[in-house]
Amino acid sequence: MKYIDQVEMKGKKVFLRVDFNVPMDKEGNVTGDKRVRASIPTINYALERGAKLIIASHLGRPKGKRVAEMSLKPVAKVLSDLLKKPVTFFDDCVGEAIEKAVGIMKEGDIFLLENLRFNPGEDKNDAGFAKQLAALCDIYIDDAFAVSHRAAASNSAITEFVPVCAAGFLLKNEIEYFKKAMVNPAKPLAAIIGGAKVSDKIGLLENLIEKVDKIIIGGGMAFTFLRAAGYETGKSLCEEDMLDLARKIVEKAKQKNVQFLLPVDTVIAQTAMAEAETKVCGVKEIPKDWIGLDIGPATISLFNEGLRGVKTIVWNGPMGMFELAPFSKGTFELAQAVANSGALSIIGGGDTDTAIKKAGLSAKMSYISTGGGAFLELLEGKILPGIAALEKSRV
Ligand code: AMP
Question: Does the C-beta of 320 come closer than 6 Å to ligand 1?
Protein backbone atom coordinates (compact mmCIF):
# COMPACT_ATOMS: atom_id res chain seq x y z
CA MET A 1 0.00 0.00 0.00
CA LYS A 2 1.33 3.40 -0.96
CA TYR A 3 0.64 6.26 1.46
CA ILE A 4 0.12 9.97 0.84
CA ASP A 5 3.50 10.84 2.37
CA GLN A 6 5.23 8.83 -0.36
CA VAL A 7 3.68 10.86 -3.17
CA GLU A 8 5.02 14.03 -4.81
CA MET A 9 1.99 16.34 -5.12
CA LYS A 10 3.38 19.74 -6.10
CA GLY A 11 1.38 21.25 -8.94
CA LYS A 12 -0.60 18.02 -9.39
CA LYS A 13 -4.34 17.58 -9.56
CA VAL A 14 -5.18 15.39 -6.60
CA PHE A 15 -8.55 13.64 -6.37
CA LEU A 16 -9.27 13.02 -2.70
CA ARG A 17 -12.06 10.57 -1.82
CA VAL A 18 -13.28 11.37 1.69
CA ASP A 19 -16.21 10.40 3.90
CA PHE A 20 -18.23 13.59 4.40
CA ASN A 21 -21.37 11.60 5.19
CA VAL A 22 -22.34 14.09 7.89
CA PRO A 23 -25.58 14.25 9.87
CA MET A 24 -27.98 17.03 8.81
CA ASP A 25 -31.20 18.45 10.21
CA LYS A 26 -34.40 19.03 8.19
CA GLU A 27 -33.30 22.55 7.26
CA GLY A 28 -30.11 21.20 5.69
CA ASN A 29 -27.77 22.35 8.46
CA VAL A 30 -24.80 20.13 9.21
CA THR A 31 -25.30 18.97 12.80
CA GLY A 32 -21.96 17.23 13.29
CA ASP A 33 -18.61 17.93 11.63
CA LYS A 34 -16.64 14.98 13.07
CA ARG A 35 -16.16 13.34 9.67
CA VAL A 36 -15.04 16.56 8.02
CA ARG A 37 -12.55 17.17 10.83
CA ALA A 38 -11.21 13.63 10.45
CA SER A 39 -10.05 14.45 6.91
CA ILE A 40 -8.39 17.78 7.74
CA PRO A 41 -4.86 16.36 8.34
CA THR A 42 -4.86 14.79 4.88
CA ILE A 43 -6.33 17.91 3.24
CA ASN A 44 -3.84 20.25 4.91
CA TYR A 45 -0.93 17.97 4.07
CA ALA A 46 -1.90 17.99 0.38
CA LEU A 47 -2.41 21.76 0.34
CA GLU A 48 0.91 22.43 2.09
CA ARG A 49 2.63 20.40 -0.61
CA GLY A 50 1.15 22.41 -3.45
CA ALA A 51 -1.64 20.09 -4.57
CA LYS A 52 -4.64 21.23 -6.60
CA LEU A 53 -7.25 19.52 -4.54
CA ILE A 54 -10.47 17.99 -5.87
CA ILE A 55 -12.46 16.53 -2.97
CA ALA A 56 -15.32 14.06 -3.44
CA SER A 57 -17.63 12.18 -1.10
CA HIS A 58 -20.99 10.48 -0.80
CA LEU A 59 -23.77 11.59 1.53
CA GLY A 60 -26.65 9.32 2.48
CA ARG A 61 -28.12 6.81 0.06
CA PRO A 62 -29.64 8.71 -2.90
CA LYS A 63 -29.36 5.56 -5.06
CA GLY A 64 -28.17 7.14 -8.29
CA LYS A 65 -30.57 10.10 -8.28
CA ARG A 66 -30.35 13.73 -7.30
CA VAL A 67 -31.92 14.22 -3.88
CA ALA A 68 -31.81 17.85 -2.78
CA GLU A 69 -31.52 17.04 0.94
CA MET A 70 -28.43 14.94 0.26
CA SER A 71 -26.46 17.67 -1.49
CA LEU A 72 -22.93 18.24 -0.21
CA LYS A 73 -23.29 22.00 -0.70
CA PRO A 74 -23.71 22.77 3.03
CA VAL A 75 -20.55 20.77 3.70
CA ALA A 76 -18.51 23.11 1.48
CA LYS A 77 -19.19 25.91 3.98
CA VAL A 78 -18.25 23.68 6.95
CA LEU A 79 -15.02 22.66 5.22
CA SER A 80 -14.20 26.22 4.27
CA ASP A 81 -14.75 27.37 7.88
CA LEU A 82 -12.53 24.62 9.26
CA LEU A 83 -9.73 25.26 6.76
CA LYS A 84 -10.19 29.05 6.80
CA LYS A 85 -9.82 28.90 3.03
CA PRO A 86 -12.25 29.26 0.13
CA VAL A 87 -13.79 26.03 -1.18
CA THR A 88 -15.43 26.02 -4.60
CA PHE A 89 -18.48 23.78 -4.76
CA PHE A 90 -19.67 22.15 -8.01
CA ASP A 91 -23.23 20.91 -8.34
CA ASP A 92 -22.09 17.77 -10.16
CA CYS A 93 -19.13 15.44 -9.88
CA VAL A 94 -18.30 15.02 -13.57
CA GLY A 95 -18.91 16.96 -16.76
CA GLU A 96 -17.61 19.75 -18.93
CA ALA A 97 -17.85 22.60 -16.42
CA ILE A 98 -15.74 20.72 -13.91
CA GLU A 99 -13.22 19.57 -16.49
CA LYS A 100 -12.77 23.18 -17.64
CA ALA A 101 -12.39 24.48 -14.09
CA VAL A 102 -9.93 21.72 -13.21
CA GLY A 103 -7.88 22.66 -16.28
CA ILE A 104 -7.17 26.13 -14.87
CA MET A 105 -6.76 25.17 -11.20
CA LYS A 106 -3.89 26.68 -9.25
CA GLU A 107 -1.85 25.16 -6.46
CA GLY A 108 -3.78 25.37 -3.20
CA ASP A 109 -7.20 25.60 -4.89
CA ILE A 110 -9.88 23.45 -3.26
CA PHE A 111 -12.88 22.05 -5.15
CA LEU A 112 -15.67 20.05 -3.54
CA LEU A 113 -17.74 17.98 -5.94
CA GLU A 114 -21.43 17.12 -5.52
CA ASN A 115 -22.50 13.82 -3.91
CA LEU A 116 -20.90 10.97 -5.88
CA ARG A 117 -23.94 8.77 -5.28
CA PHE A 118 -26.17 11.08 -7.34
CA ASN A 119 -24.51 9.30 -10.27
CA PRO A 120 -25.79 5.73 -10.78
CA GLY A 121 -22.27 4.63 -11.73
CA GLU A 122 -20.91 5.18 -8.22
CA ASP A 123 -22.62 2.33 -6.36
CA LYS A 124 -22.21 0.06 -9.40
CA ASN A 125 -18.44 0.48 -9.41
CA ASP A 126 -18.93 1.48 -13.03
CA ALA A 127 -15.75 1.75 -15.10
CA GLY A 128 -17.18 4.51 -17.32
CA PHE A 129 -17.96 6.76 -14.37
CA ALA A 130 -14.63 5.92 -12.75
CA LYS A 131 -12.85 6.94 -15.97
CA GLN A 132 -14.63 10.30 -15.94
CA LEU A 133 -13.54 10.89 -12.36
CA ALA A 134 -10.02 9.71 -13.11
CA ALA A 135 -9.80 12.15 -16.04
CA LEU A 136 -9.96 15.01 -13.52
CA CYS A 137 -6.71 14.15 -11.76
CA ASP A 138 -3.07 13.04 -11.80
CA ILE A 139 -3.11 11.45 -8.34
CA TYR A 140 -5.80 9.56 -6.43
CA ILE A 141 -5.88 9.58 -2.63
CA ASP A 142 -8.39 7.48 -0.70
CA ASP A 143 -9.22 8.59 2.84
CA ALA A 144 -12.74 7.18 3.09
CA PHE A 145 -12.23 4.14 5.30
CA ALA A 146 -15.92 4.01 6.25
CA VAL A 147 -16.86 2.92 2.71
CA SER A 148 -13.90 0.63 2.07
CA HIS A 149 -16.11 -2.45 2.50
CA ARG A 150 -18.15 -1.49 -0.57
CA ALA A 151 -16.66 -1.43 -4.07
CA ALA A 152 -17.68 1.88 -5.63
CA ALA A 153 -16.41 3.70 -8.71
CA SER A 154 -14.71 6.33 -6.53
CA ASN A 155 -12.80 3.88 -4.32
CA SER A 156 -12.31 0.85 -6.48
CA ALA A 157 -12.64 1.16 -10.30
CA ILE A 158 -10.98 4.60 -10.28
CA THR A 159 -7.67 3.05 -9.17
CA GLU A 160 -7.44 1.31 -12.57
CA PHE A 161 -7.36 4.63 -14.40
CA VAL A 162 -5.16 6.89 -12.27
CA PRO A 163 -1.41 6.28 -12.49
CA VAL A 164 -0.63 7.15 -8.85
CA CYS A 165 -2.92 5.93 -6.06
CA ALA A 166 -2.34 6.12 -2.32
CA ALA A 167 -4.06 6.12 1.07
CA GLY A 168 -4.52 9.32 3.10
CA PHE A 169 -3.67 9.63 6.79
CA LEU A 170 -7.08 8.57 8.08
CA LEU A 171 -7.01 5.35 6.08
CA LYS A 172 -3.36 4.82 6.99
CA ASN A 173 -4.22 5.08 10.69
CA GLU A 174 -7.11 2.64 10.36
CA ILE A 175 -4.91 0.09 8.61
CA GLU A 176 -2.00 0.50 11.00
CA TYR A 177 -4.13 0.20 14.16
CA PHE A 178 -5.93 -2.78 12.73
CA LYS A 179 -2.57 -4.46 12.12
CA LYS A 180 -1.44 -3.66 15.65
CA ALA A 181 -4.58 -5.32 16.98
CA MET A 182 -5.06 -8.28 14.70
CA VAL A 183 -1.97 -8.99 12.62
CA ASN A 184 0.89 -8.67 15.09
CA PRO A 185 -0.68 -7.71 18.42
CA ALA A 186 1.09 -7.44 21.74
CA LYS A 187 -0.30 -10.43 23.68
CA PRO A 188 -2.45 -11.25 25.55
CA LEU A 189 -5.11 -9.96 23.17
CA ALA A 190 -8.70 -9.61 24.41
CA ALA A 191 -11.85 -8.94 22.41
CA ILE A 192 -14.88 -7.35 24.07
CA ILE A 193 -17.98 -8.05 22.05
CA GLY A 194 -21.41 -6.71 22.93
CA GLY A 195 -24.46 -5.25 21.24
CA ALA A 196 -27.82 -6.63 20.41
CA LYS A 197 -27.51 -9.78 18.39
CA VAL A 198 -25.27 -12.81 17.95
CA SER A 199 -26.47 -13.10 14.35
CA ASP A 200 -24.82 -9.76 13.47
CA LYS A 201 -21.51 -10.87 14.92
CA ILE A 202 -21.06 -14.51 13.93
CA GLY A 203 -18.37 -13.84 11.35
CA LEU A 204 -16.61 -11.64 13.86
CA LEU A 205 -16.70 -14.22 16.67
CA GLU A 206 -15.57 -17.03 14.39
CA ASN A 207 -12.59 -15.05 13.15
CA LEU A 208 -11.66 -13.67 16.57
CA ILE A 209 -11.51 -17.13 18.14
CA GLU A 210 -8.61 -17.89 15.81
CA LYS A 211 -6.67 -14.83 16.97
CA VAL A 212 -7.44 -13.74 20.52
CA ASP A 213 -6.59 -15.06 23.99
CA LYS A 214 -9.85 -13.92 25.61
CA ILE A 215 -13.36 -13.07 24.51
CA ILE A 216 -15.57 -11.03 26.82
CA ILE A 217 -19.26 -11.11 25.91
CA GLY A 218 -21.87 -8.60 27.07
CA GLY A 219 -24.99 -6.85 25.77
CA GLY A 220 -28.14 -8.48 24.48
CA MET A 221 -26.18 -11.15 22.66
CA ALA A 222 -24.90 -12.59 25.95
CA PHE A 223 -28.40 -13.95 26.68
CA THR A 224 -28.35 -16.20 23.63
CA PHE A 225 -25.12 -17.72 24.97
CA LEU A 226 -26.66 -18.06 28.45
CA ARG A 227 -29.77 -19.72 27.06
CA ALA A 228 -27.55 -22.03 25.01
CA ALA A 229 -25.86 -22.99 28.29
CA GLY A 230 -29.27 -24.01 29.63
CA TYR A 231 -30.32 -20.96 31.68
CA GLU A 232 -33.76 -19.36 31.62
CA THR A 233 -33.30 -15.76 30.51
CA GLY A 234 -36.82 -14.38 30.98
CA LYS A 235 -37.79 -11.84 28.35
CA SER A 236 -34.19 -10.89 27.59
CA LEU A 237 -33.12 -10.74 23.95
CA CYS A 238 -32.56 -14.26 22.72
CA GLU A 239 -32.15 -15.64 19.22
CA GLU A 240 -33.53 -19.16 19.39
CA ASP A 241 -32.15 -20.02 15.95
CA MET A 242 -28.65 -19.13 17.08
CA LEU A 243 -28.48 -21.47 20.07
CA ASP A 244 -26.62 -24.26 18.26
CA LEU A 245 -24.19 -21.82 16.79
CA ALA A 246 -23.61 -20.24 20.19
CA ARG A 247 -22.77 -23.69 21.62
CA LYS A 248 -20.38 -24.33 18.74
CA ILE A 249 -18.62 -21.02 19.33
CA VAL A 250 -18.16 -21.82 23.04
CA GLU A 251 -16.91 -25.32 22.16
CA LYS A 252 -14.42 -23.92 19.65
CA ALA A 253 -13.15 -21.42 22.21
CA LYS A 254 -12.49 -24.33 24.58
CA GLN A 255 -10.61 -26.26 21.90
CA LYS A 256 -8.50 -23.23 21.06
CA ASN A 257 -7.84 -22.45 24.71
CA VAL A 258 -9.49 -19.06 24.36
CA GLN A 259 -10.93 -17.81 27.65
CA PHE A 260 -14.63 -17.07 27.10
CA LEU A 261 -16.18 -14.78 29.70
CA LEU A 262 -19.95 -14.43 29.98
CA PRO A 263 -21.94 -12.29 32.44
CA VAL A 264 -22.65 -13.80 35.85
CA ASP A 265 -25.26 -11.22 36.88
CA THR A 266 -27.49 -8.71 35.16
CA VAL A 267 -29.51 -5.54 35.70
CA ILE A 268 -33.14 -6.44 34.99
CA ALA A 269 -36.38 -4.51 34.46
CA GLN A 270 -39.88 -5.35 33.28
CA THR A 271 -39.76 -2.77 30.51
CA ALA A 272 -36.86 -1.25 28.65
CA MET A 273 -37.57 2.26 29.89
CA ALA A 274 -35.54 4.81 31.80
CA GLU A 275 -38.11 5.06 34.61
CA ALA A 276 -38.59 1.30 35.04
CA GLU A 277 -37.92 -0.36 38.38
CA THR A 278 -34.61 -2.22 38.21
CA LYS A 279 -33.05 -5.10 40.16
CA VAL A 280 -29.81 -7.03 39.99
CA CYS A 281 -29.93 -10.80 39.81
CA GLY A 282 -27.66 -13.73 38.94
CA VAL A 283 -27.95 -14.93 35.34
CA LYS A 284 -29.44 -18.20 36.58
CA GLU A 285 -32.24 -16.37 38.42
CA ILE A 286 -33.79 -14.06 35.84
CA PRO A 287 -37.57 -14.02 36.58
CA LYS A 288 -39.93 -15.01 33.78
CA ASP A 289 -41.25 -11.56 32.87
CA TRP A 290 -38.06 -9.58 33.35
CA ILE A 291 -35.49 -8.42 30.80
CA GLY A 292 -31.71 -8.35 31.25
CA LEU A 293 -30.62 -4.89 30.08
CA ASP A 294 -27.10 -4.43 31.43
CA ILE A 295 -24.30 -6.43 33.03
CA GLY A 296 -24.41 -6.43 36.85
CA PRO A 297 -21.73 -5.43 39.41
CA ALA A 298 -20.27 -8.95 39.80
CA THR A 299 -19.86 -9.13 36.00
CA ILE A 300 -18.20 -5.71 35.94
CA SER A 301 -15.66 -7.02 38.49
CA LEU A 302 -15.21 -10.26 36.56
CA PHE A 303 -14.58 -8.42 33.28
CA ASN A 304 -12.31 -5.91 35.02
CA GLU A 305 -10.29 -8.80 36.36
CA GLY A 306 -10.29 -10.40 32.90
CA LEU A 307 -8.62 -7.32 31.46
CA ARG A 308 -5.79 -7.35 34.00
CA GLY A 309 -2.44 -7.90 32.28
CA VAL A 310 -3.96 -7.76 28.80
CA LYS A 311 -1.77 -5.86 26.30
CA THR A 312 -4.23 -5.33 23.44
CA ILE A 313 -8.00 -4.85 23.53
CA VAL A 314 -10.43 -4.76 20.60
CA TRP A 315 -13.94 -3.64 21.51
CA ASN A 316 -17.16 -3.69 19.52
CA GLY A 317 -20.65 -3.39 20.99
CA PRO A 318 -22.03 -2.01 24.27
CA MET A 319 -22.54 -4.14 27.41
CA GLY A 320 -26.15 -3.06 27.84
CA MET A 321 -28.84 -0.68 26.67
CA PHE A 322 -26.51 2.21 27.49
CA GLU A 323 -28.79 4.79 25.83
CA LEU A 324 -30.95 4.62 28.98
CA ALA A 325 -29.23 5.78 32.18
CA PRO A 326 -30.24 2.80 34.41
CA PHE A 327 -28.62 0.39 31.95
CA SER A 328 -25.48 2.36 31.07
CA LYS A 329 -23.28 1.57 34.06
CA GLY A 330 -21.88 -1.71 32.71
CA THR A 331 -20.68 -0.12 29.46
CA PHE A 332 -19.34 3.00 31.17
CA GLU A 333 -17.47 1.08 33.88
CA LEU A 334 -15.99 -1.29 31.36
CA ALA A 335 -14.88 1.74 29.33
CA GLN A 336 -13.15 2.99 32.47
CA ALA A 337 -11.51 -0.42 32.96
CA VAL A 338 -10.26 -0.37 29.36
CA ALA A 339 -8.95 3.17 29.87
CA ASN A 340 -7.13 2.10 33.07
CA SER A 341 -5.75 -1.12 31.62
CA GLY A 342 -2.72 0.44 29.95
CA ALA A 343 -3.39 -1.85 26.98
CA LEU A 344 -3.53 -0.68 23.37
CA SER A 345 -7.28 -0.21 22.93
CA ILE A 346 -8.99 -0.20 19.56
CA ILE A 347 -12.67 0.63 19.48
CA GLY A 348 -15.05 0.23 16.57
CA GLY A 349 -18.74 0.43 15.78
CA GLY A 350 -21.00 3.46 15.97
CA ASP A 351 -22.70 2.51 19.23
CA THR A 352 -19.48 1.73 21.05
CA ASP A 353 -18.04 5.04 19.94
CA THR A 354 -21.17 6.88 21.15
CA ALA A 355 -21.10 5.06 24.51
CA ILE A 356 -17.45 5.86 25.12
CA LYS A 357 -18.03 9.47 24.24
CA LYS A 358 -21.00 9.57 26.67
CA ALA A 359 -18.71 8.12 29.33
CA GLY A 360 -16.27 10.97 28.59
CA LEU A 361 -13.45 8.52 27.86
CA SER A 362 -12.80 8.91 24.11
CA ALA A 363 -9.42 10.55 24.68
CA LYS A 364 -8.31 7.62 26.86
CA MET A 365 -8.66 5.06 24.07
CA SER A 366 -5.72 4.38 21.77
CA TYR A 367 -7.83 4.48 18.63
CA ILE A 368 -11.50 4.80 17.74
CA SER A 369 -12.24 3.58 14.24
CA THR A 370 -14.18 5.85 11.88
CA GLY A 371 -15.81 2.93 10.08
CA GLY A 372 -18.64 0.90 11.59
CA GLY A 373 -19.32 -1.69 8.90
CA ALA A 374 -15.81 -1.48 7.44
CA PHE A 375 -14.24 -2.02 10.88
CA LEU A 376 -16.48 -5.04 11.54
CA GLU A 377 -15.59 -6.56 8.19
CA LEU A 378 -11.88 -6.11 8.87
CA LEU A 379 -12.37 -7.91 12.20
CA GLU A 380 -14.26 -10.64 10.37
CA GLY A 381 -11.08 -11.23 8.38
CA LYS A 382 -12.56 -9.99 5.11
CA ILE A 383 -10.59 -8.26 2.41
CA LEU A 384 -12.11 -4.82 1.87
CA PRO A 385 -12.50 -3.91 -1.82
CA GLY A 386 -11.46 -0.27 -1.28
CA ILE A 387 -8.21 -1.32 0.39
CA ALA A 388 -7.55 -4.18 -2.03
CA ALA A 389 -7.89 -1.77 -4.98
CA LEU A 390 -5.23 0.51 -3.51
CA GLU A 391 -2.91 -2.40 -2.79
CA LYS A 392 -3.29 -3.69 -6.33
CA SER A 393 -2.57 -0.30 -7.81
CA ARG A 394 0.82 -0.03 -6.11
CA VAL A 395 3.52 0.25 -8.75
P1 AMP B 1 -25.05 -3.43 17.94
O2 AMP B 1 -25.46 -2.47 16.88
O3 AMP B 1 -25.28 -4.85 17.59
O4 AMP B 1 -23.67 -3.16 18.49
O5 AMP B 1 -26.09 -3.19 19.13
C6 AMP B 1 -26.13 -2.01 19.86
C7 AMP B 1 -27.46 -1.92 20.56
O8 AMP B 1 -27.61 -3.02 21.41
C9 AMP B 1 -27.59 -0.70 21.40
O10 AMP B 1 -28.57 0.14 20.86
C11 AMP B 1 -28.03 -1.24 22.76
O12 AMP B 1 -29.10 -0.53 23.32
C13 AMP B 1 -28.47 -2.64 22.45
N14 AMP B 1 -28.33 -3.54 23.60
C15 AMP B 1 -27.25 -3.76 24.34
N16 AMP B 1 -27.52 -4.60 25.35
C17 AMP B 1 -28.81 -4.91 25.26
C18 AMP B 1 -29.69 -5.74 26.02
N19 AMP B 1 -29.25 -6.40 27.09
N20 AMP B 1 -30.96 -5.84 25.63
C21 AMP B 1 -31.40 -5.16 24.56
N22 AMP B 1 -30.62 -4.37 23.79
C23 AMP B 1 -29.36 -4.24 24.14
Answer: yes
The strand pair at 52-56 and 291-295 is best described as unpaired
- Determine the length of the chain: 395
In percent, the amount of the chain with pLDDT more than 70 equals 99
Structural domains of the chain in order of their starting residue, each with its CATH number: 4-167 (3.40.50.1260), 175-379 (3.40.50.1260)
- Using the predicted structure, report yes or no on whether residue 243 has a pLDDT greater than 80: yes
- Nearest Cα to Cα of residue 217 among 240, 249, 187: 249
The answer to whether the CB of 107 is under 6 A from ligand 1 is no
DSSP 309-323: T-SEEEEES-SS-TT
Fill in the DSSP letter of residue 182.
Answer: I
Q: Is the pLDDT of residue 22 over 60?
A: yes
Let me know if 315 is exposed, middle or buried by CB neighbors in 10 A (0-12, 13-18, 19+). buried
CA of 197 to the centre of ligand 1 (A): 8
| pLDDT the model gives residue 393 | 82
Look up the pTM and report it: 0.92
* Catalytic center residues: 35, 197, 350, 373
Q: How far is CA 322 from CA 167, 218, 339, in A?
A: 35, 12, 18
Are 21 and 70 contacting, i.e. CB atoms less than 8 angstroms apart? no
